[in-house]
Amino acid sequence: MTLFTHPRRSHRFPIHRLRRVLRRKNPLPVARAHRFGHGDDADGTDMSDDVLAQYREQARALHERLVHDHDVSVVEFLGATGSGKTTLIEHLIERAPSDEAIGVVVGDVAGDDDARRFRTHDVDVANVTTGKECHLDPGLLGDALTDLDLNALDRLYVENVGNMVCPADFPLGAQARVLVVSTTEGDDVVRKHPLLFEACDAAVINKIDIADAVGADIDRMASDIADVAPEMDVFRTNGRDGDGLDAVASFLTDVRAAGHDHAHH
Amino acid sequence: MHELSVAEELLARASEAAADHGADTVETLTVELGVATHVNPTQLRFCLETVAETRGDSDLTVEIESVDPQAACDCGWAGEPPSFGATAGRVPTARCPDCGSSVEFTSGKECRLASITVPDAPECNEGVHT
């Protein structure tokens, strides 16, 4: 058998010389092995061995490119299919100052229904159909950006695929991740998805106008969010009439004004 | 649900490393999978085996090593964060048990290709006594 150490580590680990000497005298009776370096090695060169770390690194690079190089304020909307993400973004577009240039990247498994809705507004739209994927990843978002003129944009909304599990592992480099839940999903929806709340910066409880009709306790949803993510900003909205959207718009203005030093996205 | 694309990435990287050693198949593939991710180990194993089979690697042995979560807080606390109760798998919170702020995970967020073994190349067997 031949034992291979990771080539990128060998220069820092003299133990490989010892192994070589030992191997000559006493070869081990196992198949040839290749060990990959640790992602937490001081030089970080082995990042590509960690698939999720690689996505996080791509998200950081996207953030750098969009927010720092092109001065575009990027806001991601996440939440279940039917929670109201598209409608909320439409309200935000309507509330934007007339000189604000807006782009929207819309992720869906199939179809261009949401993209067609956005095209009726005065915004640039890129549609991403993921096919088999349950979420947008930084590569898909990066590809979609080729359809947009980044130098012209002030604000980019990214609407993720309707899903409350997978996007937690796939940041997209936004300045704020806004998670939308609605009363129709049941008032226990927050407790069912703690990891996604932890991965986001703000939460919107939507469809408050029909909470009574569907038997949802909005205060319970808000207190569940406070339990899971105490620092999270929470907004209550009625996407149909636009109630509560001014507060969301003003939060996003503050996000932009707060600058580009957002900690972990 | 994203286990399939994660499996494809891991296998692509494994094949690349195998090719570096002149091998076109991978015998054993070991993945270190953090507990604080949304990647399901059972599904990941299934996807790795299935994708490998489509590439003609039907005898692939998949080892998945679970990595415990470790986190650190600005307040000085560091350790294993508590988990949410009543979940099928262990789901660590990202809260500091001391001060309640958000913590940064120092481990438990990885999905890392740790090692592979490839079949012995004929020329390497010469003179090797097993």
TrEMBL record, chain A:
- Protein name per Swiss-Prot or TrEMBL: Hydrogenase accessory protein HypB
Give the organism, scientific name.
Answer: Halonotius aquaticus
Ribonucleoprotein: present as a keyword of the record? no
Q: Which gene encodes it?
A: hypB
Q: Report the InterPro entries cross-referenced here.
A: CobW/HypB/UreG_nucleotide-bd (IPR003495), Hyd_mat_HypB (IPR004392), P-loop_NTPase (IPR027417)
Keyword annotations for this protein? GTP-binding, Hydrolase, Metal-binding, Nickel, Nucleotide-binding, Zinc
Q: What is the lineage of its organism?
A: Archaea, Methanobacteriati, Methanobacteriota, Stenosarchaea group, Halobacteria
Extract the Pfam families matched here.
Answer: cobW
Q: Which domain of life is it from?
A: Archaea
Choose any GO biological process term that the UniProt entry carries and state it: protein maturation
UniProtKB/TrEMBL annotation, chain B:
Query: By its UniProt entry, which PANTHER family does this protein fall under?
Result: HYDROGENASE MATURATION FACTOR HYPA (PTHR34535:SF3)
Record-level Gene Ontology MF annotations: nickel cation binding; zinc ion binding
Entry protein name: Hydrogenase maturation nickel metallochaperone HypA
Q: Which UniProt keywords apply?
A: Metal-binding, Nickel, Zinc
- Keyword Metal-binding carried by entry: yes
Q: Name one GO biological process term.
A: protein maturation
